[in-house]
Design goal:
The complex is a heterodimer of chains A (596) and B (355). Chain A is mainly α. Chain A is built from 18 helices and 2 strands. In chain A, helix 2 runs parallel beside helix 5, helix 4 packs parallel to helix 6 and helix 15 packs antiparallel against helix 16. Chain B has a domain of 158 residues: Cupredoxins -  blue copper proteins (Immunoglobulin-like, Sandwich), CATH 2.60.40. The chains are: A mainly alpha (596), B alpha+beta (355). Chains A and B meet through helix 3, helix 4, strand 1, helix 8 and helix 9 of A and helix 1, helix 2, helix 4, helix 5 and strand 7 of B.
């Protein structure tokens, strides 16, 4: 391991270290290998998370009906095939946790920050390859613990992914708050450590290891997005860690940070003076920035892919950077909009309504800039491009309803209904997932040296796109009809009987959409071995990663690191023969760099 | 049966995918396929972009027509309800307009400018005027929405004691609701979970020594007088719950260790609401569904579903454990006289205790 701890330090090239299987594939310190490790782990967790959503969707559509799939997968939690109400909540909880943290945070940021930061800024590796390796293995450990928690006697955590105490603090309140919750907290504590190590590494690398000529204003928008995401992570994740630690104290050592005046199962508990509202503040202080930790990398990836495939510069580079910064700043002062009806002071509600709705402004700028980038382009509709356009579409659809939820007066009536579920799945779930898919289709050649099959990519995109709308669009309406989320069945409310068929429609779309992810998995895994061999720069892109050889080598470039002479978006620039001018090409005589 | 269908569907989908994979694999044998989009791909996917735009519009129309008739959004039963509904309608109109326009531009451009070999894109990197326009328009729109929203929010949340509201405690526990009225003095006696005495049937932990508590009235069905401001004081004894009263556009969490509050004035009695044309239609529609569902139940030897009759409801809307999905309480809104008559029939706290 120690033989190549400082790969970026030696600028003498062509070095090939003797590598064993273990140092190359397992305890690797090479950012490209670590990116692939993140991707594969994230994909496996994604499969688990999506299967869970299918299970509870089937329960919602056909409540309390025996289902052999439940019997097979849930065992004692589905006696005679009927899903138990406790495991329903556990499935909802773990689905949320896995998708938000393990897939869309670690799987997305971990993969593409690791892969692209050194390659696009012109560095031989991350600032610390060792920390990078530790970061991945902590993530792996936390994934393993989270999966193990599914198999404990009393069931996995079931208090919702927000794990509000006292429900999450008291095993008397629900069985999932026993060993399952302990493992959840341990897993998340390790996850946060992993995320912090990763983020620090990204920040240091972007600040220090940019190649000659790569000024901040020449950075591709991907790097801006990853950089700012890492900063948000460093600012907000520690707060969740402290919340988790205090909750562990309340659970195991009898403190009263979040608990007070509790009478449960015939006895008064000793807790006094704590407040669950404090936990909500701490949780959402991370929880809301987390939305942007998930979303910004996806938007960064999209910016890059839309520009490349439109054969046009991204429209309004400076405005794009400014809006990333504005979103990042605002994201840390809006958390209270999750708590309008939590019992906090209504005046605070006013303040958070104000800051929340401000976020719509930079978001609108981003959306319009994407659309303008398409205008008069020469669009190469590769699968990555389709997913990027799809992202803009769901980002708009999902983002617009934020205007309703962010408005405290309106939130009163749709808070915690399916309207919320529809909103955040579209704007952060599906959008970020599209960003991840777009990134995979686009940089697969860089990762594996082979191409993904485009036709399978087309099938994958179009079915996914239709099903995503089919699942989440109708949810707005059952939400506006007043249907609360996280109900095991709605059959106890005749009031909602007329919504039962909507739920069936949604579940069918979900089943079909999920089934077609198999097309992607097949394409992904078979192309590693049988895909068409990639050219060095298959998408004719300007960024530096495409100047490295197809075969991965340590230190990324066999020769000297290229110098950068221009921004990343000189596509179809007048005066040039080709419709792209890579960043390492010097300015021609008399050519002026765009003032941006 | 459903499970069987599910499996069949899944199997079919699996076979379909396998078939498509095969077809595409065969189609690519021997072709010099670089897996980068060709003009043909661009054309096909460009048209699919248009089709997808049509799909988005279609699903919007279908949703609005089939499920957009939302009595919950139009027949509020509280004084502040119409304010929320107005703001909601204004927001929805803006959202739909922006959605229709931007989705059109996005997908239309994706179709119109689909790539062709030899064509060069326009090098167009910046335009400050354009960007200023789509910064300023959202700023103005949002400023309007924020101001309207904040006025609405403040008028709902600011409760003045001068209005002499009827004070009711909503008490949440896994998995049911209890209501406590202040009685003749309209003042709730002190209470704390540490005073709960199950043997004496003091389930809310009301202070038996507090003179204000003696005439308190504890009930399992919430009755509200029409036209009088009601101030809810909410408590929970175990975990977080949320008192959600959708018909009244009202919601507030119940938090162990603190008292939260929400106030509104009911404006429509249960009897009046049952006469409302929208509600009659909705109830009729639901009953048709219930009759249909009953057929299946009866066939398998179970009891038929009861006929549904409209009632206001209090639902729990914060995940609270196993039976969260069934934590509800009926709300009856009636005239002041009916309400007083009902109240007189209820036992006072001092008489409800086991000696």
């Amino acid at each position: 391991m120690s033989t190549h701890a400082d790969t970026h330090a030696h600028d003498d090239h062509g070095h090939h270290h003797k590598e064993t299987f273990v140092t190359k594939y397992i305890f690797s310190q090479d950012h490209k290998m670590i990116a692939k490790q993140y991707l594969i782990t994230g994909t496996i967790m994604g499969v688990v998370g999506i299967i869970m959503s299918l299970l509870f969707r089937m329960q919602i559509a056909w409540p309390e009906e025996p289902n052999v799939i439940f019997e097979a997968l849930l065992g004692k939690w589905a006696p005679e095939g009927v899903m138990d109400a406790d495991i329903y909540l556990a499935l909802v909880t773990i689905h949320g946790t896995i998708m938000v943290f393990f897939v869309l945070t670690a799987g997305l940021s971990g993969t593409f920050s690791n892969l692209l930061i050194p390659l696009q800024i012109g560095a031989r590796d991350m600032a610390s390859g060792f920390l990078n390796m530790v970061s991945y293995w902590l993530f792996f450990l936390s994934s393993v613990i989270m999966v193990i928690s599914l198999f404990v006697q009393t069931g996995p955590a079931a208090a919702g992914w927000t794990i509000y105490p006292p429900l999450s603090a008291l095993p008397l309140a629900q069985p999932g708050s026993g060993a399952g919750m302990t493992l959840w907290l341990v897993s998340m504590a390790i996850f946060i450590a992993s995320s912090l190590l990763g983020s620090l590494n990204y920040i240091v690398t972007v600040i220090n290891l940019r190649t000659k000529g790569m000024s901040m204003t020449r950075l591709p928008l991907t790097i801006w997005a990853f950089f700012v995401t890492a900063i948000i992570g460093v600012v907000s994740f520690p707060v969740l860690l402290s919340a988790a630690l205090l909750l562990i104290m309340d659970r195991s050592f009898g403190t009263s940070f979040f608990l007070s005046d509790i009478f449960i199962q015939g006895e008064v508990l000793h807790y006094q003076g704590g407040s669950p509202v404090l936990f909500e503040h701490l949780f959402w202080f991370l929880g809301h920035p987390e939305v942007y930790i998930v979303l910004l990398p996806a938007l960064g990836i999209t910016s890059e892919i839309i520009a490349t495939n439109s054969r046009k510069p991204i429209f309004g580079y400076r405005a794009m950077v400014a809006s990333i910064l504005a979103i990042a700043f605002l994201s840390t002062i809006v958390w209270g909009h999750h708590m309008f009806v939590s019992g906090m002071n209504p005046f605070l509600g006013s303040v958070f309504t104000f800051t929340t709705l401000l976020i719509a402004i930079p978001s609108a700028v981003k959306a319009f800039n994407y659309i303008t980038t398409l205008w008069k382009g020469n669009l190469q509709l590769n699968p990555a491009m389709l997913f990027s356009i799809g992202l803009v579409s769901t980002f708009i659809t999902g983002g617009l309803t934020g205007i309703i939820l962010g408005d405290s007066a309106l939130d009163i009536n749709v808070h915690d209904t399916y309207f919320v579920v529809a909103h955040f799945h579209l704007v952060m779930g599906i959008s970020a997932l599209y960003g991840m898919f777009a990134g995979i289709y686009h940089w697969y050649p860089k990762m594996f040296g082979r191409m993904l099959n485009k036709n399978l990519g087309y099938i994958h995109f179009w079915v996914t796109a239709i099903c995503a709308y089919g699942v989440f669009f109708p949810m707005h309406f059952i939400g506006m009809a007043g249907l609360p989320r996280r109900y095991y069945t709605n059959s106890n409310f005749p009031l909602f009987d007329d919504l039962a068929n909507v739920n069936v429609v949604i579940t069918v779309f979900a089943l079909v959409g999920a089934a077609f992810q198999l097309v992607f998995l097949y394409n992904f895994f078979s192309s590693i071995f049988f895909g068409k061999k990639a050219e060095q720069n298959p998408w004719k892109s300007n960024t530096l990663e495409w100047t490295t050889p197809v075969e991965h080598i340590h230190g990324n470039w066999p020769g000297a690191i290229p110098h950068v002479h221009r921004w990343a978006y000189d596509y179809s620039k007048p005066g040039h023969e080709a419709d792209f001018v890579p960043q390492n090409i010097p300015l021609m005589d008399g050519e002026e760099e765009l003032q941006h | 049966m459903t499970a069987f269908f599910t499996i069949i569907i899944l199997v079919f989908i699996g076979v379909a995918i396998w078939q498509m994979v095969k077809i595409f694999d065969l189609a690519q044998v021997g072709a010099s396929n670089s897996q980068v989009a060709t003009d043909k791909d661009n054309k096909l996917n460009g048209y699919l972009m248009l089709a997808f735009l049509a799909f988005i519009y279609l699903i919007t129309i279908v949703s609005v027509v089939k499920w957009g008739d939302l009595p919950l959004l139009s027949n509020s039963a509280s004084e502040h309800g119409p304010q929320i509904d107005n703001l909601m309608v204004i927001s929805l109109v803006i959202i739909f307009a922006v959605q229709i326009l931007t989705q059109f531009l996005l997908h239309w451009f994706a179709f119109k400018y689909k790539g062709e070999k030899g064509r060069k894109a326009l090098f167009y990197a910046d335009n400050n005027t354009l960007e200023a326009i789509w910064t300023i328009i959202p700023v103005i729109t949002l400023a309007g929405l924020i101001i309207y929203g904040l006025f609405t929010w403040n008028s709902i949340m600011n409760v003045s004691e001068d209005e002499d509201p009827l004070v009711i405690e909503l008490y949440a526990q896994q998995f049911n609701w209890t209501a406590r009225y202040g009685g003749a003095d309209n003042t709730l006696g002190k209470a704390n979970v540490r005073l709960i005495d199950i043997d004496k049937a003091n389930v809310l932990g009301v202070d038996e020594a507090d003179p204000n508590a003696q005439d308190d009235i504890i009930v399992k069905e919430l009755h509200l007088p029409k036209g009088r401001k009601v101030l809810f004081k909410m408590r929970s004894q175990d975990v977080l719950h949320s008192a959600y009263m959708p018909h009244f556009r009202a919601q507030m969490n119940c938090v162990p260790g603190m008292i939260t509050q929400f106030a509104f004035t009911p404006t429509v009695t249960t009897a009046e609401m049952r006469q409302n044309q929208d509600i009659i239609e909705k109830v009729e529609h639901i009953n048709e569904i219930r009759v249909e569902n009953s057929k299946e139940l009866v066939a398998s030897g179970e009891e038929a579903l009861e006929r549904y009759e409209f009632d206001y409801l209090l639902l729990c809307n914060k995940i609270c454990g196993k039976s969260h999905y069934n934590m509800q309480m009926k709300i009856v809104v009636e005239t002041e006289e009916e309400f007083q008559a009902w109240l007189k029939e209820q036992k006072e706290f001092k008489d409800s205790l086991n000696k």
